Amino acid sequence: MGAGGAGVNRFGDAIRYLNDPFNWTKRDGILDLLVEHLRISALAVLAALVVAVPVGMLLGHTGRGGGFTVALSNVSRAVPTLALLTVFAVTPIGFGPTATTIALAVFAVPPMLTNTYVGFRGVDRDVVEAARAMGFSERQVATRVELPLAMPLLMTGVRTAAVQVVATATLAALVAGGGLGRIITLGFRQQDYGAVVAGAILVAALAVLTELLLVAVSWALTPGEKRLPFLTARRNSPVPEPTAAGVPL
Question: Which ranges carry the ABC transmembrane type-1 domain (predicted)?
Fold first, then answer.
């Protein structure tokens, strides 16, 4: 059988795996691993959010630390998450969900920090000076003027980090951290490639859903008139002018 036929068979095995209710409801089944995956990812993103956004706001508001944010972003691309997990293995942190959460949080900080900084620096300086002239304190300028205007870029950083974390959390299974990656590692161990493909489908679907959810959150948080994209396109489309016979040309 050719490679194409084998691929089709494995995809069919994956669909059968996902359609089996027992694989979802058993102990350490898909539902349990999904909850574990979401918990690890959410904790990592929240931890990164608490660290990165305030620091990015401070640096962006003051205009300092541009070189630091660029350097941090570059370093983060060079240090893979798996390397951090390996380092944690020889420290008191060890293996498990805690090590995975910390490593993923470290991985998520740079895009959030960089986008927050760039978003704040991109705010029109005339708007900032006008707010100061109106008597706003520096804190009010940052939170009531710069933050709303920087929100689209800030949320882009959060969305990028969250999708990366959801996808990379699959590595947790390599260090006894749980999550959907266990389906993939167990499938390889048992040479059940249908389960491997099923695990990959689940992780990819979860990443796409995370992206869509955060796009909606970003749309809701961005100041200005709220219009759904398809409604905006429909309103902006030209309307044909009727002729004397009532039929457009």
Answer: 34-214
